[in-house]
What we know:
six-stranded parallel β-sheet, 40% helix, 10 helices, alpha/beta
Amino acid sequence: MLNYLIIKSQIKIIIYRFRFIRKLLYKYKNNKKLKIFDKANLKKDSIFVDLGGNLGLVSYYIHDKFDCNIFIYEPNPICFDILINNFKNYKKIHIFNKAVSNKNGRSKLYFSKENLDNINYHAASTLEKSKKNIDKKNFKNIDLISIQKVIKQHKYIDLLKIDIEGSEYKILPYITKNINKFTKIYCEFHGRDEKNRFFTKKFRYWLKKINSNNNYKKKIIPWI
């Protein structure tokens, strides 16, 4: 079973390089996680910032759909190498081998306890030591860039996607402080479907905070 998952993940990386195959998959596969971005209504000069680029599936979709400017941040060196290889001929896509957090510097990136030959486990690597299913002895030291610096690099961000494995709670205070610089923010919130008290507490706090502010609620969309 494990060998099958490894082979499947490798095939996915290869076939997504071909636009005609991607378009067929968009049309015939139930991609709710991707089609939610249709509502962003981006244009060719729009700015999309992808925090946690993983294997690039969201950025592929945004590029295919809108052909806009894309900035990807991915700390995992293996995922980063895949992104660089897949997007090397895309002039409007810019990729950075950094984790976005609340500060600049260096940090440990922890990996899953599962078999690391499966690229899907690499894509779920995290800065958060409290996250379940990680091996605290299996990590790499990686570069951090602060969310404040990312925001300052752009006059305006039309779409922000956050998928950073629990670190969203470190950067949300700075995002809400600069909420007027964003049109839409799709954020994966950890804690609502995990048995992790730390993340559950953070998730409930931010859900209440967002729902109590119409400007936040209009712009920050939970991404499943």
